[in-house]
TrEMBL record:
Its EC number is 3.1.1.29. Residues 99-143 are annotated as: Disordered. This is Alternative ribosome rescue aminoacyl-tRNA hydrolase ArfB. It comes from the Bacteria. InterPro entries: Pep_chain_release_fac_I (IPR000352), Pep_chain_release_fac_I_sf (IPR045853). Residues 11-136 form the Prokaryotic-type class I peptide chain release factors domain. Residues 124-135 have a biased composition (Basic residues). GO terms for molecular function: peptidyl-tRNA hydrolase activity. Keywords: Hydrolase. The keyword Hydrolase applies. It comes from Saccharothrix lopnurensis. The keyword Hydrolase applies. Belongs to the prokaryotic/mitochondrial release factor family.
Length: 143
């Protein structure tokens, strides 16, 4: 899998900037788990990458600061028995994480006052609820 990692239409991580490590998966799996290096760790140096624009790098680093170790983002995949499937899963996971980190921030919400109609609906609902609770009282009135 020496293909470039397509994160978005504008952000493509070259295969040369990705590094893969293989190791044995943990857990049950029979004899194959003891011999096959099917677990995959995919690493990407976000801080030192020339393929990420500077304006985008700052946003991504801020959003991924808890996941980065010395500026490197690492993703592991060991859910499949085959190394090839784990490689594909790790690439998909890395692309999703980078895509979420690169997403534009949501628009800032401007606070507005409630409309006259919404205020009237709220008061009418409060009165209806009060009448319902008043009917549950033993004396049948306000006290």
């Amino acid at each position: 899998m020496t293909e470039d990692l397509v994160v978005t239409r504008t952000l493509v991580v070259p295969a040369a900037e990705l590094s893969e490590r293989f190791s044995r998966s943990s857990g049950p799996g029979g004899q194959g788990v003891n011999t096959a290096d099917s677990r995959v760790e995919l690493s990407f140096d976000l801080v030192g990458s020339p393929s990420v624009p500077g304006w985008l790098r700052g946003r991504m680093i801020a959003r991924l600061e808890k996941r980065l170790v010395d500026g490197v983002l690492t993703v592991a995949a060991s859910e499949h028995r085959a190394q090839l499937q784990n490689r594909a899963a790790a690439r998909e996971r890395l692309a999703r994480i980078l895509r979420e980190a690169a997403a534009a921030p949501p628009p800032v919400r401007r606070a507005t006052k409630p409309t006259k109609g919404s205020q009237e609906r709220r008061i009418a609902e409060k009165k209806r609820r009060a009448r319902t609770k008043q009917g549950r009282r033993g004396d049948g009135g306000w006290d």
